[in-house]
Amino acid sequence: MEHLLDVRDLSITYLNKSRNVQAVRHASFTIDRGDSLGLVGESGSGKSTLAMGMLRILPENSIEMTGSALFMGKDLISISHEEMNRLRWKEIAVVFQKAMNALSPVHRIGTQIEDIYRVHEPRATKAEIHDRTMELLRMVNMPERVYRLYPHEMSGGMLQRVAIVISLLHSPKLLVFDEATTALDVVTQGQILEEVVAMEKTIEMTRIMITHDMSVVASSCRKVAVMYAGELVEIGMVRDVLKQPLHPYTQGLMSSFPSLKGEKKQLRAIPGFLPDLSDPPAGCAFASRCPHCTQQCLSQKPVLREMPDGRRVACHLVGGQKHE
Amino acid sequence: MSDKNTPFLTIDHITKWYPHNDGRIHLFRSREKRSWVKAVDDVSLTMNRGEVLGIIGESGCGKSTLGRILVRLESPTSGDVLLGGRSTAQMLREDRKAFRKRVQIVFQNPFDTFTPRDTIQKILMRPLRNYGIGASDEERLAMCREALEAGGLHPTDEILKRYPHELSGGQLQRISIIRSMFFKPDLIIADEPVSMLDVSVRADIINMLLDLAKKNNTAVIFISHDIALTRYISDHIAVMYLGRVVEYGRTDDVIAGPRHPYTRVLISHCADVDPDQARDSLPITGEPPTPINPGPGCYFAPRCFMACEGCRAAYPGRVELENGHYVCCSCIREE
Ligand SMILES: Nc1ncnc2c1ncn2[C@@H]1O[C@H](COP(=O)(O)OP(=O)(O)OP(=O)(O)O)[C@@H](O)[C@H]1O
Ligand SMILES: Nc1ncnc2c1ncn2[C@@H]1O[C@H](COP(=O)(O)OP(=O)(O)OP(=O)(O)O)[C@@H](O)[C@H]1O
Ligand SMILES: [Mg+2]
Ligand SMILES: [Mg+2]
Predict the structure, then answer these.
(1) I need a surface site. Which of B156, B200, B298, B328 has the fewest CB within 10 A?
(2) B52-57 and B236-241: which strand pairing?
C-alpha cells in the first residue's frame, strides 16, 4: 500500500551569517492513512523545523532543504508555492508551536476563522461557516462567546484551542500538532484528543503529534519517533518503545518522568547537552552523554537498523538488521 | 519590617472583572446590569518565603490573570496583594524600579516574551546593566554565559548571538527563566515555565529554580498543567476553577487525598506514560464553562458528578480539613 506521507532523507539547514545550523539531518519515515505518530525529542532537536520544513513555511532564502517528502504522490519539498497553498489547511493542517501568536491582534476570532475558511471555500456562506465553527468550538470545550473575542481577551489554552479549531475546519487528511496542547489542563486535553482520535477513524485522518509529554503519546498515538540532535534515533510502535526503550536516549527520557504516585525522587536530568548543530560530531550524536559509549560510537555514525519487533533503532549497541 | 506571624505574601480577596462584550452598546446600563467576565473572583491565599505554591486548574480559569496581578502588570478590580505586610499597589507607586526587581514573572508564552529585534546577549545584558548587577560588562557577560551553560544552552557564544526567532520554544523558555532569576527576586511567578521542555532538560531548570528558592529564600508560584511535576516541586497546591480557589492544602494532602470533585476529576485524568495502564477517569459533563455571571451556586455544579440541589443555591464556603487543607464544596462535611 502507498503511504500517505513518505519522508526520505530529509535534511534542513539554517544558513546564518556565521554558521550553518543543521537542524534536521537525513530523516526518513513513513505514515499510513489513519495512523498516528508521536514525535518526541529533546528541546532544540529539530522537531518544529521538520514540521515547518515540510509545510514550506521557513524563509526559503535562509534555509537549505534536501531530500523528499511525498504526500499523496506529491513531493512537498519541490512543488510550487501555488500548489502548496492549495494543500495547506485543506489537505494538510498544522497547529504550530507559535500558535498563541499566530492570530491577528486587531480582528475578532470569528472574522479570522471566516477568512481562513473562505481561502478554500470562497462561496461559503456566513451561516455555514458559523455552524461549522460552533460545532468545533463545542468539541474543544469552548463557549460560543469566543467567536466575538479578540486574541488578547483569551487565555493561552483558549488560543491554542482556536488554533486547533482552525486546523480542523476542512477535515484535513494530515494533521500536525506541534505542542498544540501545552497550555491545556489534562481534562480538556483528554477530551480534545479523544474527539480527534474519533475523527481519525471516521474520516481516515492521519496525525503527527509533536510533544514533550509522553503520556499524550501513550494515550493517543500508535507509533512514536524519537529525535535527538536533528536525527531520528528510534521509531516504532508506542507499545514497544515506551515499555522497553532500546536507544539510550529514549531510556534516559523514560526514566526521568515524574509520577503522581509513589515517593518523590529527585528529579533527574540526562547529564550533558545537545551537541553543537553547526558542527555535529562524526560518530553518534548522543555519544557524549551516553552511559554506554564505546570507541566505535565516537568514530562511526550508527544507522537505523530494524529490530525483530519491527522498530528501528540507531545505536551500535543494540544490533538489529541493517535496513535496505 | 514584618513580624513572624505575617505571611510573606498575602493575596487578599483579589477579583478581576473584565467587561463582557456581547455586541450590544452599554452606554445607558448601570454597572450592576452589565455583564462581566469574572476572570479572578475573590481569591485569597498566603505563602511564606522559600516556599513553592503550585496553582493548577482548568484552562481559562484565571491563573495567568492572577499572575499578572501579583506582579502588578494589571491592577485588580478589588482586593490587594501584600508583600511582607505592605501593599504592592503602594510599593509600586513609591519605587517602581525596586518593585519590578523584587517581583519577577516568567510568561506563559515564550514566543512573545522578548523583543524580536534584539539578540539574546542584548536581552540578557540590558536588565543587568539597568539594575547595576555585576561590576563591569565583562563580569555581566560571564554571568550570562554561566547561566546559559547551567540551563543546557550550548554553545553559549552562539546562543548569545542569536535572535529570539532563531531559537526553539524550549530554548526560549529557558532563557526566560534564566533572566528572571538574575535578580534574585523575592517572588517569582512562573507561568507554565517548562511546558515545552522534555523531562531530560527540565530537571536542571526546575532544580535551578528550587535552588534559588532555598538559597535566596524566594517565594515561587508555579502555575502548571503538569500535575505530576507540580507535585514534585511544590509545598502547597491551590486548585482553581472559574476564577475561584476550590481547594488548597499541602501538596501530598491534595494529590493523595483530593476532596473537591473538580480536583478529583482533574487528578483522575492524569494519564500515565504506560500505554497499557487503564484509567478510571471520573466523568465531567455539560456545557463548556464560562466566567460570565456564573453562579449563584457553586460554579462547578453544572458539570459536577456529585451535584445536588443544595449546590445550586449559594456558593459554598470553606470546609476546613486537616493541616490547613480546605475545600469549597457543599457536599463535604467538616471532619
Ligand atoms: N532561524 C534559525 N537559525 C539558526 N538556528 C535555528 C533557527 N531556528 C531554529 N534554530 C535551531 O535549530 C534547532 C532546532 O530547532 P527546533 O525549533 O526545530 O527545535 P524543537 O525540537 O522544535 O525544540 P522545542 O522542543 O524546544 O520546540 C535548535 O537548536 C534551534 O536553536
Ligand atoms: N483582557 C481581557 N479581556 C477580557 N477577558 C479576559 C482578558 N484577559 C483574560 N480574560 C478572560 O479571563 C479568563 C481567564 O484567563 P487566564 O488567561 O487568566 O486563564 P488561565 O487560567 O491562565 O488559562 P490557560 O491555562 O489557558 O492559560 C478567560 O476566560 C479569558 O477569556
Ligand atoms: Mg519546537
Ligand atoms: Mg494562562
Answers:
(1) B156
(2) parallel
